[in-house]
Each structure stands twice: as structure tokens, then as C-alpha cells.
Amino acid sequence: MNRKIRRRKKRIRLLSIGLVIILGIAATYMAVEGIGGNKEKNNDPVEPADVVTSNPKEEPSTSDPQVKPDIEINIKATGDIMFHPSQIDGAYDPRTGTYDFHNSFKAVKNIFTYADLAIANFEGTTAGDSVYSYQGYPLFNAPDEVLDAIKEAGFDVLVTANNHSLDTRKAGIIRTIEQIQARGIDTVGTYKEKPETRVLMKDVKGIKIAIMSYTEMVNGLESVLSPQDLDVMINIIDETKIKEDIAYAKEQKADVIIAYMHWGNEYARVQNERQEMLADMLLNEGVDIILGSHPHVIQPAKLYEIDGKTKYVAYSMGNFLSNQREETLAPYGISKEISKYTEDGVIVDIEIVKNGETGEISVKNIRYIPLWVYKGNTADGGVEHVVYPIMEYIESRDVDDNSKLRMQRSLNDTTAQMQID
Hints:
transmembrane; disordered N terminus; Metallo-depent_PP-like; eight-stranded mixed β-sheet; Purple Acid Phosphatase, chain A, domain 2; 16 strands; alpha/beta; transmembrane helix; 2 domains; six-stranded mixed β-sheet
């Protein structure tokens, strides 16, 4: 046979073999990818309902890009952040002449970091140390470093309308706002000058949140400001102004309206009649969530159904961080039976869902995280205050047995208070 013919036949055989191999690989690929075959290797068998049996345009699937998905956000809110002398002294490093408060937030940082919106009441001022020394009750003034720790802990908004807003007078209000905002944290409730609006508007992943803040009192210090400055710089509870603010939030098409109210009687574990009357007004005017502070103890929480919408009130979330406890309040004539509750606080954990198609808002899955404030000695002889989420630490080796007993008491009492009616 001619040598050229033999070579041609050999090439034909090789091409045939190659074609068979290519066709085999293609068939395998089609089977694996589900092209012209079943996804037999996927451990997730296709159910009959997933098989398209008609024109997709007639029966759009849930993955249709034209169907707008729901938006879900998580809000975490808590009560009073205060800094007393033992906290300030405990955070001071004499070697560097600086303060570091991060340790107080170490156990809760992850909780706030993963919230879409984290809010607390900052009770006090950061007026610097040129006029006022760093001090606690009755005129709170903390080092700027407290704000570094609060920022690092994950807070987005600080409420500044409370009975200690005027502790360092007008200059203190202004500097406190400046120092908070310089760290990228929003403020609501006090103002350096007449604001365009008293309402803080936040767009959180496409959900518009309106936050307003008011206080019942400023500890009798109203007279240190002129009537004009008092009117514009601090939100004192005034029903006319509150209704104006709610109306403004509605004009801005707020999806959710939150009112932070500094109200009630200190150390009272049940809300008073004025709180209930104000809550009724707020809810009926259009507020969706009311978060209370000032009593320094936890008060009950309640759910309401108004005009087909679920609304929520936490009358007082207690202390988030302070030096108030059994041992420290006795000199002020407050019994241990009452003062022990000042060690307790909660983080209110709320989910907000916005329907992608209708825009309807749902307040749902309201939970709470019980907190207890530890106070103890450090290895170098100092004092530390640490906020502990109880459920994470009540069995931890990081906490001593006596603290666990106090945690258990706190957990029992908090659970009883936060049973939502």
C-alpha cells in the first residue's frame, strides 16, 4: 500500500478517536451542568414545581429580576451610658497621661457592630478639662476618649437630650456635639444652633428612619440658658413640638419613626401615668417605636396594634454602663433592694422589613439581650467596669462565681420586666 495512503488513513483514525473523546467530554459537561439533561450530581434534586412547563413570561419565577426583593434591617438600641469617677479613674493610665475606655465595651462590641443601626443615650457631656474637671454626678463631664470607645463599639447614633445635657452649660452642649460628630456618630436631641429640623433622618439600606429625642427636664438648669437658646438647643418635652416633628417625619416619607424619650421617675420599675399618656399620644400621632431612658432601671415593654400596625414601647431600658449598683447608691439613701436593679440593662433588638413590591413596613421579631455591669479590680490594682451580655457569660470562666450569682438575679428580674404584653 502506498505510504501516503497509509499515513492518510492513520490521520483519519486519529481524528475519529479525537472526535469521540471530544463528544464524550461534551456529553459529560452537559449532564453535570444540566444542559439537555438532569442535575443528577447536585444532591439537591429538582422538585416538579421547579421545572418550567410553560412560557416563563406567563409564569414568572421568584428569581425574576423585575420582582423587587424585601429589605430587612436590624436595629439595636440601649439605655443610659454614664461615666462616674471610678470609671474615669479606672481608665486612666498614669504612665501616658491618657484614658482608654475600650475595655468596658469589649463583651458587647460584636453585638452592635453587626447591627444596621445602633443607638444609645449618652448621659453627660464632653466639655474638656479647661473649665470643668472630669467628674460624675451631679455635673457629668467625661474625657473625649469615652467617645472613641463608643465609636469603636459600633454605635451610629447618640441621643443627647437628657437631664444632664446642661451639666457644663452652653459651651458643654456645643463641644459635646462637636466631639461626637467628629467621630462620625450622629446626634439628636441637642443642637449648637437653631436646626433646620429637630428630626434626624437616616437612610438605612433603603429604609428611611426618623429619630427624635426629648427630655422631661434638665435638673433645674434651664435658667443657665436664655429662653431663646433653651428653645432651640435642647428638646424639652413639648407636645406641640413633638407633633410638629412627627408631621415633618411623615412629610419626609419616613418608613419608621423612633422616639427616644428621657422620662419617668428615677429607680421606679413601673412607668408612671405621664409616660403612658405621652406614649399614647406618640403612637396615635404616628410614632412606631418608643425607647425610654432616665429611670436607671428597667421598666416594662409593651406591644400595640394601632390601625393595623404593630408598634412597640420600652418604657425604660435601664443602664447600659455606669457605676450605679448596690454598693455605690447606699450613701445617697437608696436601699439595696432598689439599687441592685441599676446594674441591669437591655439591648432591644428589632427587625424592620420593607416589602419590595408594596413598600409596606413591618416591625417584627422584637427581642432583647439582658445586660449586667461588672465592677472589679484589675491585675494592676485598678478598677474596671465591663458590660456583659448575660447569656453569653453566665457560665464563662471569665466571670467569678459571685458575679455569676448577681448575673442570675439580674437575668431573672430582667426577664420578668421584659415580658412583652
